[in-house]
Amino acid sequence: MNPIPQLRTIHTRPAGETISAHSPDAPTRTPGGGRAPEPAIDLSRVPLPARGLLLSLHSHHLLTDADLGKFVAELGDRIRVLTTREHAADALVRLGLLTKYVRGRALAGHFSGLMFGPYRVLDRAGAGTVGVVFRGEHGLLKRPVALKVVSAANLPSADDRERFLLEARTLAALDHPHVVRCFDAGAVSDGGEEFWYQSHEWAGGGDLEQAVYDRGTAGVADGCRWGWQAAAGLHAAHRAGLVHRDVKPSNLLLDEAGRVKVADFGLVRHPASDRTPPNGMLGSPQFLAPEQMNDPSTVGPPADVYALGVSVFWLVSGKLPRPDGPPSELVQHLRTQEAARLRTARPDAPPELDDLLARMLAANPFTRPGLPEVMATFARFAAPTGLPELAARVLDVDDEAESLRTAVGQLEYELTEARKHRDDARRAILKAVHATAGREAYESGERAGTFAAVILKHLSKHPNWSGYRHPLTRVELAAIAATADVPGAAGVFDRLGELPTPLPFLRAAKDAVRHHRERWDGSGPGKLVGTAIPPVARVVAVATEFERLTNADGDPAAALAALKKQAGQAFDPDVVAAALAATDELTDLVAPVLELVPEQG
Asked: Do 153 and 251 meet the contact criterion of CB atoms below 8 Å apart?
């Protein structure tokens, strides 16, 4: 007998009971709405019974002309022996043109529920309380997808349909390696019924609950790796203002590479939605945080932290931290007792992991750790990403190697998160500069930034600048130029440079704003001489002066001539030489009133 407590609700159909008419599996009539086009492939050599099956599959878009062409070409003269529908269906399966699931449905004449929009069903993958999940593919792109299909009869109200679409929008808005992506959603009529569907990224490795049923509990290393990846996906959702509210092992899927992807956002709480009833219990009781049992409409990220803690506890121990009984017994336990400790069920678990899970399972949501701390602890004990087969060996290595493994795991996550934070911060800073600099100053900065980008491109060819690698885009250069003469701007960029994830252009911005008025001969306000002036400041100085001169009289040739006279005195001669080399490009940009080049990077 399997000692692992069963988490799934097993749905069985009594013997002799027919499939509900409101199920995608229901045997309904062939959809109407016009005659399907005849195939372009000559099927005259195919015996009549087999030909009838092929035509039916083609008319229901389950076989394309290309599929029929391959069928005829591969079989050749052997096609004449396909004297029955069954023989033709078997041949289609052998050639990979039909799955066994579709074969069975087609031979029974049950064609409805096999196409949803541009997606065709390949196999049945599972069922929930109101819908069915199929393995499918896009008919033209052949991209594998998971199709979540619900009959309109199971979405009777406008709120029900809006919640279904909200899940699709939620997933479509998140683009994270540890969140299942949503490609499409829609409604179709088939066999007189209406169905709603979502097409999701196909995670072919099954879910973590089934993995434990099939292979037994996870080791600490794999459990922590899974927990770390799930936490990363949830953290992305939380940053988007979303709370999952139904985290559990069956909603944590594995792709073919063994990476965890958080799925089933059907109970997500969206900041723009008030569709959750305050007194309803949403989610699986064993994974519900105490506050979620009272009022699911107000729960925040700590509820997902609690559910993830229960999930990891079960994955590594095969046991639940609270009694697996009726909801009333569970509620009483939540109110009166602490959750079990992991080391009581798994004595070899590291004390730090035991402490972390105890805090994640705290009754008070305000004392639970945040997901960044959760991920940092999981990373210390996680198996190397993408190498689960090495987990057992990694746990036996010496402290130095384990420290390296931990550091690599943490670095991998932190680099990913740092890039996201930098991108968010960069957009916010540029937007703020645009909003506060004023229209005239920002337009001037845009022109100077464009000129600076052109000059930098030519400078990269100069031998004195061959080792200089500038990470600046035109928009960043525009922001620098727009704030170059704003009092206190250098101090603002100083403070921004102290952010936990500093942006590459902030140091350049600070240097340019602080020193763009220096002169090459040392007669400027800071008395810096020559190459002691920061490189970006030298470029911005030339670009802003070129912008000022051309804005005054509209003559780029005169502006360049004036700059040439000042080379070696006010301006870096190399930068002026680069501007002169870019005469044609700069001239084109000045007239008529600057058609700004698009941002690169």
From this structure: no
What is the token pair recorded at 188? 């179709």
The answer regarding whether domain 420-590 maps to CATH 1.10.3210.10 reads: yes
Contact 68, 58 (CB under 8 A): yes
Compute the distance between CA of residue 282 and CA of residue 245 in angstroms, rounded to an integer: 8
Q: Which long-range contacts (CB under 8 A, 24 or more apart) does 554-558 make?
A: 554/590, 554/591, 556/583, 556/586, 556/587, 556/590, 556/591, 557/583, 557/587
CATH number belonging to domain 208-396: 1.10.510.10
Structure tokens, 243: 């709370």
Q: Are 524 and 540 in contact (CB under 8 A)?
A: no
**Contact between residue 364 and residue 377 where contact means Cβ atoms under 8 Å apart:** no
CA distance 251 to 263: 5
DSSP state letter for 121:
E
Could you tell me the two tokens for 413? 């996550």
pLDDT bracket for residue 426 (50, 70, 90): low
The alpha carbon torsion through 283, 285, 286, 292 (nearest 10 deg) reads 70
Environment class of 593 (CB within 10 Å of its CB; exposed 0-12, middle 13-18, buried 19+): exposed
The amino acid that residue 86 corresponds to is E
Distance, in Å, from the CA atom of 61 to the CA atom of 138, rounded to the nearest integer, reads 11
DSSP 8-state class, residue 243: B
Q: Which residues neighbour 171 within 8 Å (Cβ) at sequence distance 6 or greater? A: 179, 180, 181, 182, 198, 200, 265
d(CA 116, CA 113): 7
In CATH terms, the superfamily for domain 112-202 is: Phosphorylase Kinase; domain 1 (3.30.200.20)
Signed CA dihedral, 27, 28, 33, 37: sign only: positive
DSSP for 392-406 reads HHHHTS-HHHHHHHH
- Active-site positions? 246
Return d(Cα 298, Cα 46) in angstroms, integer: 63
What would the two tokens of residue 115 be?
Answer: 């196409």
What is the pLDDT confidence band of residue 497, given thresholds at 50, 70 and 90? low
**Bond from prior residue into 592 cis (ω within 30 degrees of 0):** yes
Encoded tokens for 282: 């949403």
Residue 452: closest CA among 547, 530, 371, 362: 547
Domain boundaries, given as residue ranges, for the chain: 37-109, 112-202, 208-396, 420-590
Top-confidence residue, 377 or 485: 377
Report pLDDT digits (tens) over 192-230. 788 889 898 888 888 899 899 888 999 899 999 999 999
> What pLDDT score does 470 carry?
59
Residues 19-63 have pLDDT tens digits of: 333 344 433 334 444 556 778 888 888 999 889 999 989 988 888
The 3 state secondary structure assigned to 159-208 is HHHHHHHHHHHHHHHCCCCCECCEEEEEEEEECCEEEEEEEEECCCCCEH
Write the CA distances from 432 to 135, 429, 439, integer angstroms: 46, 5, 13
- In Å, what is the CA distance from 457 to each residue of 56, 422, 470, 570, 583? 62, 24, 10, 21, 13
